[in-house]
Amino acid sequence: MPANNKSSQQAPPTPEREAGAAGYDDLVQAITGLAASLQALEPQAVELYTPIIESIVRSRSRDTHHIEHTLDGLLGFCGHDPALVLYKKLCRHYWNIDPPATASYINAYRDMWDSEQTAENESPPDAPQGGPP
Fold it and tell me: Which domain holds residue 107?
């Protein structure tokens, strides 16, 4: 005699359930497409920011507004290693101009990206003691 276990029985499909599943699948597909679009922007961001950062560093610019604006724009791409290299380079430059402000940019990077790297069992980027990343 089979046991009457209601928890193992599934309700028959209904139009509402099927529509909900299709809506969920559409949402997952849209998010996946959005993530792919964002990843495609990463190399473009590196291409765009490289000459800007090279110019700031080469000219020894002390324009804090320009430097901070550049760091703000680049931060969102630091999950892409070449963008992180640029971010670190600009932080090292900025450290000699305004250490407390640079520290806030280092912390912003850590807040945004370190938790994801730790979750993936990767070590966070090295930062010199008392210095920028």
Answer: 42-133
Q: How many domains does the chain have?
A: 1
Q: Do the domain assignments include residue 21?
A: no
Q: Averaged over 8-20, what is the pLDDT? A: 61
Q: Are 133 and 88 in contact (CB under 8 A)?
A: yes
Helix (H, G, I), strand (E, B) or coil at 97: coil
Q: How far is residue 101's CA from residue 108's CA, in Å, rounded to a whole number?
A: 11
Whole-angstrom CA distances from 15 to 7, 24, 28 are 22, 14, 20
Residue 32 lies in a domain: no
Query: pLDDT at position 124, please?
Result: 45
Entry pTM: 0.66
The band of 74, judged by pLDDT with boundaries at 50, 70 and 90, is very high
